[in-house]
Amino acid sequence: MPVSYAEDIPQTRRPSRPHRTMSDDPLQTPVQFLKGVGPARAELLEKLDVRTAEDVLFDLPRDYLDLTVVKPVAELEEGQVQTVRGRVVDLDGKKISGNRTLSAVLLDCDGDFVRGVWFNQHWVLKRFQPNDLVLFSAKVKRASGRWEMSHPMIQWLDEEDAEAGGGVLPIYRLTEGLNMQAMRRITRQTLESHAEFVPEELPEKFRQYTDLMPITAALHGVHFPQTIEQRDAARRRLVFQDLLEFQLGLALRRRLRTQQPISAKMPTTSKIDARIRRLFPFEFTAGQNSAVADIVQDLDSGHAMHRLLQADVGAGKTAVAIYATLVAIAAGYQAVLMAPTELLATQHWGTVEAILAHSRVNRLLLTGSLNTGERRQALADISSGAVQLIVGTQAVIQKDVNFANLGLVVIDEQHKFGVMQRAHFSSGDRVPHVLVMTATPIPRSLCLTQFGDLDLSVVSDMPPGRCKVTSSRVYTAAARKKAWEFIRRKLQSGRQAYIVCPRVQANESDAETEDASAEAVFRELSDGELSGFRMGLVHGQMDRERKAAAMESFRSGEIQAIVSTTVVEVGVDVPNATLMVIYQAERFGLSQLHQLRGRIARGRFDGYCFLFSETDNPEAVSRLQAMERTSNGFEIAETDFELRGPGDVLGTRQHGDLPLRVADLTTDGAVLREARKVAFQLVDSGRFDDPDYAPLKIRVLDRFREQMDLVGSG
Description:
The protein is an alpha/beta fold. Helices cover 36% and strands 18% of the residues. Helix 11 links the parallel strand 11 (363-366) and strand 12.
């Protein structure tokens, strides 16, 4: 149910900063009226989402030039990591022995020369232009009478940095028309005029305990530090508070959830457990049993369960979910299993039907494809309680769906639902138990922010006998020819194949997509590499009936190879499918590639995934190499997170919009864990209700009130 925070706001005056409206708060001064800005520059800053004095103060540098460590060439020491500054005067790339490549960039460092070299990274030369001003950092050695650095770290300098002496210079985000010198000047002037108005919301004793500097000193130190050590301490203060406030919000939400009306108790006796397990034609893995034990304890606690179930592709999360629904049904309650697409809901329905074939559980599938009469009858059976288990899509949360006695909601692939959709079941007078689950392993840092108020269960082990999948990056014409020869042999022996494309049709503005559009690939393969094999086509623009018919033909074996878009990412289970080709694999994220790969080798034969890609983009190559290296979804998720950051890891924009101000989850994981520990200790101990924390508490509630009101499921 919606929760009011009125009683949670301390009735004390805020000592550090009186309440101001936007018009009389100096921090809300529009940038146009800041010294050195004016209307024209204000328009440019608007493009960077910098609109107020406060925005300027908290628009932290994206990087720094540490000129305190730049050494003249005459002072270089062999074997030591050092930094030089120079201009690019020569670019050279050539093939060397063993089919390797050598790329070299020569710097003129005030009349002395240093060469940077890279092996098998021919693309690196595209990043340089003659006369570029750069820093190279690496171990140095003498080679052919010249100083040389192997695979140096590179920093590009602006022209105004050419004559800069020592010190640490901030590097800010820019937009066309706004140069670095102007941005530094605006920031420095805003610090001098407005930093004093930023309230100190952390009590002094707390700052001493956590070794954090005051806020004003942190702002000066993060923008214009004298040393790297000062920068690190200043940034830590700002990042820690950013993460602390968010984790305090999550801790408050968890506390408020436990204060809600008592939820139904659903005990699991040994008799109930045995009766449920007899329905499954397999033994649960250790990971599944551990998750079941967590869920059983939650359901019998008297408090609403809010648990996230993470499982790798193929680890058996659906079986755990069905076990949970049967516990609720055994206790006399209705249960819902909700999926984001009709394809996935239908897949779950098939699994439910197979497992409950010999049970007396009344169940139905509720999707948008029901006709008027079928839907009317389904709604009547749900509202009367005649139906105990409802499997469906968003159709189960429409206004005309009324449950007789809803006790448990299982939301699958929950990140594909909007926040309000997920919160639906926590509204009204009833608060059912909620289990959200995903087969997309989530990096630890993201998990502690997106789902930090949910209890966590992880199923990382695989059922015994699960076949392995070998993944191969295919980036030459010769390798592609061999791949198709291998695929034809496997198809002739009775196996089946998915051919996955990034688009349905070619994009007129992107000629490269023509060869990788589903419709073009279907025509090409039908007349070429897979001529003579029975082929099908499925994509999201097809109507429901045609799509379902194509997938059923593939499932039955009538179709040997099916060309598709990512509609097969989840919810498709064809045990005989052991082959997958992914066109332009560099266009997909790592987690999505892992999800796609999980569609094969689900039976008794090993699988083979071919990643077709001709890219030489280093980040894309790293993703594809990670696919070759491991099939562990949790390792894949962490690698994806490191390479791409939080924005796209889970595939939807809402996860890129984490409500963080300055923290970067890809680099601040250690600070996150520290802030989380402190936040939950403050709330659980009751110390957060002390008057000393009143300013911080008001800040948390002001900042996260909207998220906090969405209790429990997002």
